[in-house]
Amino acid sequence: MTTITLKIDERTKKGKAFLALAKVFYDEKNEVELVKEKDTSPYNPEFVAKINKARMEKGKVMNSVNELWESIQ
């Protein structure tokens, strides 16, 4: 069995047509399986949380890049 991951924009005409074609194969013989995957971020979740926390601290002035990195560690 081969697994292929596709990213399809369901809002476009071509995206809708491709999904309709895939659903025909899926409905008829069950030889094609449609699997929805959640979007996963390639970034470390802890780092993202630190960046989001720093983003919320509006009005804080950093004098150097080192000071910025120290504030998000």
Share in helix = 40-55%
The chain-level mean pLDDT equals 79
Stretches with pLDDT under 50, minimum 5 residues: none
- What is the count of DSSP helices, taking H or I runs of 4+ residues? 3
Which series of helices and strands comes N to C? HHH
In short:
By secondary structure, the protein is an all-alpha fold.
Compile the SSE list and pairings.
Blueprint (H helix, E strand, L loop, with lengths): L12 H17 L15 H12 L8 H7 L2
Give a structural overview.
There is one protein chain. This protein has 73 residues and is an all-alpha fold. The protein folds into 2 domains: 1-39, no CATH class; 41-73, no CATH class. It is 49% helix and 0% strand. It has 3 helices and no strands. The model has no long low-confidence stretch (mean pLDDT 79).
Keywords, please?
2 domains; mainly alpha
